[in-house]
Amino acid sequence: MARIAGVNIPTNKRVVIALQYIHGIGEKFAKDITDKVGIPAERRVNELTDAEVIQIREAIDRDYVVEGDLRRNVAMNIKRLMDLGNYRGLRHRRGLPVRGQRTHTNARTRKGPAKPIAGKKK
């Protein structure tokens, strides 16, 4: 099992798919990495040589923000918004949708399970 950026990537999958197990690498970045290193698209992780794994690891370390650093950056950005006290920060603080979605109905993922209101029977 290859370990890249602190993540054990699955060995029996194609390299492009396996790289997407790393937080911060999606389909486009995975294809870009394999193109830079020169690995064919149909190659599987268990067919990689140690040198190719090292090349992939170095390319990710050099060019991309992934895993812990990315999570830290996102958390700091949200904390900055909350400290500023602007609208987006208040929405984060209250646990409500941030990007303008309606909350009269829906928004159950952000708001949590519905709380019953006493005396609201029809």
From TrEMBL:
Region annotated Disordered, chain positions: 92-122
**Keywords associated with the record:** Ribonucleoprotein, Ribosomal protein, RNA-binding, rRNA-binding, tRNA-binding
The cross-references to Gene3D superfamilies, in alphabetical order and at most eight, read:
1.10.8.50, 30s ribosomal protein s13, domain 2
Top-rank lineage group of the source organism: Bacteria
Q: Which first-to-last residue range defines the signal peptide?
A: none
Example of a GO cellular component annotation carried by this entry: cytosol
Q: Does the keyword tRNA-binding apply?
A: yes
| Transmembrane spans | none
A GO molecular-function annotation: structural constituent of ribosome
Q: Name one GO biological process term.
A: translation
Family the UniProt entry places it in: Belongs to the universal ribosomal protein uS13 family.
Report the function annotation for this chain: Located at the top of the head of the 30S subunit, it contacts several helices of the 16S rRNA. In the 70S ribosome it contacts the 23S rRNA (bridge B1a) and protein L5 of the 50S subunit (bridge B1b), connecting the 2 subunits; these bridges are implicated in subunit movement. Contacts the tRNAs in the A and P-sites.
Q: How does it assemble?
A: Part of the 30S ribosomal subunit. Forms a loose heterodimer with protein S19. Forms two bridges to the 50S subunit in the 70S ribosome.
Task: Please state what the protein is called.
Answer: Small ribosomal subunit protein uS13
Give the organism the record lists: Devosia ureilytica
Gene that specifies this protein: rpsM
